[in-house]
Write a structure and sequence with these properties.
This protein has 435 residues and is an alpha+beta fold. The chain folds into three domains: 205 residues; 81 residues, no CATH class; 116 residues, Immunoglobulin-like (Sandwich). The protein contains ten helices and 20 strands. The strands form six sheets. The protein has a five-stranded antiparallel sheet, with no helix packed on it. Helix 3 packs antiparallel against helix 6. It is elongated and about 100 Å long.
């Protein structure tokens, strides 16, 4: 029993200290990907010598730490490692031919450009909120309600809410309107109230937070009263709370000639577009075309992410100060990749500093993106990301490679026994947290 409790404590220690905070696209879930990881470990360890590993908590932490740093960078690089000719950096942007009428954003994920359909939309009517505007009353005059306790009901959707308040002697119309407005706003029932004033007159306005008409109903909210002897009625009639100034309405539009309705002006189409209807079409306005295009601006953003992730990884390596950790080996291998691609990257505004970090000239990158063949001229950035991805894969598989560990014995060449757990010392055990 004691042994079981001790094992549980060890497990919880690793779970809370080293488990990843979030999953990335680099994390594997498919059977063939798990099989590839296993085979890679077997191949790596088949001819691996037998090492002497010391019981050093700092060294253990460094091994897990370098693995976590590489894994974080690996997740960002996975988005860029795409072999599709139509998906450089896998980002697109939506466009509309009239952004004052319809705005659009692309939410379709990694798809080829020709796989994302365009369409035409005509906006006939916008969805509206229900707005009730009460009677304008002299704001400073005493209220025309006798002092006492009052109640009224508000039905919002399928729910009914009762409100109670008191009228005191000397309360003005404005005083009670303000009191009712605060009462409704604090209730958080999907309504917003405010008191409008105009040259000594005031009225209570109540607006629904949601747009459109609920299914099976004609109004977003309604008022009613039901006196029980102790609580007075008359609030609705005196203040005109049930006076509907703007009725709720659904949006009406057509997609490629087919009529559609929506309770909101904000909705999605085919799980690829997120649309916002802004105004109705005029009599002579042509249909608005919605489609996608390759977004050079997103390419610049992704290059910034690549540079930021690269520099952050180098900075994280400097944070490991254990004497047994070979920080220089990690730094030299990663900066060596950058130097290999430097001639091609330099022409795009990407420079390497003396300490191996990357400095990005955004203006030069922007000029290149707007005046060049992006698919060909920006290929070195994609290849650079792919090379970094391979290096991060190696570090994640065998972080112990960067820990000082004396060799005890070499295996008999050609007769190596595959030991898939060689790389699992201290950190390899965490594979189950990623797969």
């Amino acid at each position: 029993m004691a042994n079981s409790i001790q094992n549980e404590q060890v497990y919880n220690h690793f779970l809370t200290a080293y488990a990843p905070k979030e999953f990335t696209r680099a994390d594997t879930h498919k059977k063939d990907e798990l099989r590839n990881i296993y085979n890679s470990i077997v191949k790596l360890s088949k001819e691996s010598p037998l090492y002497l590993l010391t019981n050093d908590s700092a060294m253990e932490a460094d091994a897990v730490g370098i693995k976590e740093s590489a894994r974080g960078f690996q997740g960002m690089l996975a988005d860029m490692e795409d072999d599709s000719e139509n998906a450089l950096f896998a980002k697109k942007s939506a466009y509309t031919t009239d952004s004052t009428m319809v705005s659009a954003s692309y939410i379709g994920g990694d798809r080829a450009l020709e796989d994302v359909p365009s369409f035409q939309i005509e906006v006939e009517k916008l969805a509206t909120q229900q707005k009730n505007t009460g009677r304008y009353l002299p704001q400073d005059e005493p209220a025309g309600l006798a002092p006492g306790a009052y109640s009224f009901n508000v039905r919002v959707g399928d729910l009914n809410y009762e409100f109670q308040y008191s009228v005191r002697s000397g309360d003005s119309n404005y005083d009670i309107q303000e009191r009712l407005g605060r009462l409704i706003n604090k209730s958080n029932i999907g309504l917003s109230a405010e008191v409008s004033r105009n040259e000594g007159w005031s009225a209570l306005s109540i607006t629904s937070n949601d747009y459109g008409i609920p299914l099976g109903r004609e109004e977003r909210f309604t008022f009613s009263e039901q006196g029980d002897g102790e609580l007075r009625t008359g609030t609705i009639g005196y203040f005109g709370l049930d006076r509907n100034e703007i009725p709720a309405a659904n949006a009406e539009f057509s997609l490629d000639g087919k009529t559609r309705t929506s309770t909101s002006n904000h909705f999605t189409v085919a799980s690829m577009y997120e649309l916002q209807l802004l105004k109705t079409r005029g009599e002579d306005d042509p249909p608005v075309t919605v489609g996608v295009k390759d977004d050079n601006a997103s390419l610049i953003d992704r290059t910034r992410e690549l540079v930021g992730g690269y520099n952050a990884f180098l900075d994280s390596v400097k944070g490991f100060r254990n004497d047994h950790f070979k920080a220089n080996r990690v730094t030299n291998e990663v900066t060596g990749i950058a130097k290999q691609y430097y001639p091609a990257l330099n022409s795009l505004g990407i420079n390497i500093t003396e300490d191996g970090h990357i400095d990005l000239d955004v203006e030069a990158l922007t000029r290149s993106a707007s005046s060049s063949d992006v698919r060909n001229d920006f290929r070195p950035i994609k290849e650079f990301a792919g090379a970094l991805q391979e290096k991060m894969d190696q570090i994640v598989l065998d972080p112990m490679h960067y820990i000082e560990r004396p060799v005890v014995a070499y295996k008999n060449p050609g007769h190596g026994f595959p030991n898939p757990y060689i790389t699992s010392e201290y950190s390899g055990m965490m594979f189950n947290g990623y797969c």
